[in-house]
Design brief:
Order of helices and strands: HHHEHEEEEEEEHEEEE
Structural class: alpha/beta
Helix content: 25-40%
Strand order of the largest sheet: 3-2-1-6-9-11-12
Distance between the termini: 22 Å
Number of helices: 5
Number of strands: 12
Shape: globular
Strand content: 15-25%
CATH class: Alpha Beta
CATH architecture: 3-Layer(aba) Sandwich
Length: 206
């Protein structure tokens, strides 16, 4: 993990600093080699986590671009006796879809793999955020405290406001996405754990 300047929320240049840090994180993630093998390590850690094992209804994200790749593990997740949900975006908000088979996904806008349009209106496919027991969270960058930085659109911020308080939020990231500290606002939600190929954050207390 490279050293970076500590950034505080009281800086008048908060947004500019966050934009710069987001660009650094994107560059690092895009340059990361061996994404497939590292993603497998990270997703194996996720599925072995106590929080995952005990959860009954789990929200997975479907990877896009250079994110930690989850789609290779979705099939394994569907084989477990768990209810799997995946998100899709409507008018700036994430709606949740009960995924039972990978064939229910297709390439949509911006070539993002998402639930097929003709299945989304089926009542049995809708998942209430309040029913989630665990959320698997993507991100552009994270810090050692569990603070998260997304793309800046607020999709997951709005979603996490609608889940039950206290449910585990497990983020997936490459080591290169971890910073000593990223800027946070008072409303920002910290991750329960950030899982990387080599470790987790925040570090477990000894």
């Amino acid at each position: 993990m490279e050293e970076n300047a500590v950034i505080h929320d009281d800086s008048k240049h908060f947004q500019e600093q966050k934009k710069l840090l987001r660009e650094q994180a994107h560059e690092r993630r895009n340059a990361q080699t061996d994404k497939d093998s590292l993603s497998e390590l990270i997703c194996n850690k996720l599925m072995a986590a106590d929080e995952y094992i005990s959860a009954k209804t789990i929200l997975w994200y479907v990877d896009v671009r250079s994110e930690v790749r989850t789609r290779q593990h979705l099939g394994k997740a569907l084989d477990d006796a768990k209810k799997i949900a995946v998100p899709y975006c409507v008018d700036g908000y994430l709606k949740l879809f009960h995924l039972a088979d990978l064939d229910e996904l297709s390439l949509g806008k911006y070539r993002i793999l998402e639930p097929k349009a003709d299945l989304r209106s089926l009542p049995e496919k809708a998942v209430d955020p309040q029913d989630l027991d665990l959320v698997v969270v993507p991100g552009v960058g994270f810090d050692v405290r569990g603070a998260r930085m997304g793309h800046g659109f607020g999709y997951y911020d709005k979603l996490l406001e609608r889940v039950r308080p206290g449910i585990p939020l497990l983020a997936l990231a490459f080591d290169c996405q971890i910073f000593p500290e990223i800027p946070v606002a008072p409303h920002d939600v910290f991750m329960t754990k950030v899982l990387t190929e080599t470790t987790q954050y925040p570090k477990p207390s000894s």
